[in-house]
Amino acid sequence: MKSEIDLFFLGEEMGNLIENLKTAFGDDFIALALFGSLARGEGDERSDLDIFCIIDNLPGKIYERKKLLSKIITKHIQRRFSIIAKTHLEFLDHFSSLYLDLGLDAKIIYDRDDFLKKKLKRIRNILEKAGLKRERDGRDFFWNWKRTPSQGWEIDWQGYRELGKRRTV
């Protein structure tokens, strides 16, 4: 099932961008979400737009990806933006700490087959089981534990675990 939402502050621009990405990448275009201050409803006219997308068969070099996607995005978005683009396999291969923020902030604009929606739900579940809570200090955020792990720890798509112990999620 495809899910799309229209964010009031971007309106038609975002709809046109999605259509151009579908045209450019076809079935390789899996998902696009916004995150950061604008997605949280905290941005202003000076805020940049933070874009996260999953598109298969992207160029291997990050610079080439950004160049390719920026060419499409700048036709539709009239504000500063930053983009993080992953392939489907890259997204699943490495659990970046960025994903924790995406789990809380991401506003899905396009999501073929609800792939990203399911993964964001998984991230929120992992955060809950790990006892991690994002807190604010002025304009900055930090992660705080309900119960600080006694040893090292790791989080991946399998869940959260304290090193030296069995997985708890």
TrEMBL record:
* MF (Gene Ontology): nucleotidyltransferase activity
- Cross-referenced InterPro entries: NT_sf, Polymerase_NTP_transf_dom, Type_VII_TA_antitoxin
Tell me the SUPFAM superfamilies matching this sequence: Nucleotidyltransferase (SSF81301)
Ranges for domain Polymerase nucleotidyl transferase? 19-88
Q: Record's superkingdom?
A: Bacteria
* Family matches, as PANTHER family: NUCLEOTIDYLTRANSFERASE, PROTEIN ADENYLYLTRANSFERASE MNTA-RELATED
How is this protein named in the record? Answer: Nucleotidyltransferase domain-containing protein
Tell me which species this is from: candidate division CPR3 bacterium
Question: What lineage does UniProt assign to this protein's organism?
Answer: Bacteria, Bacteria division CPR3
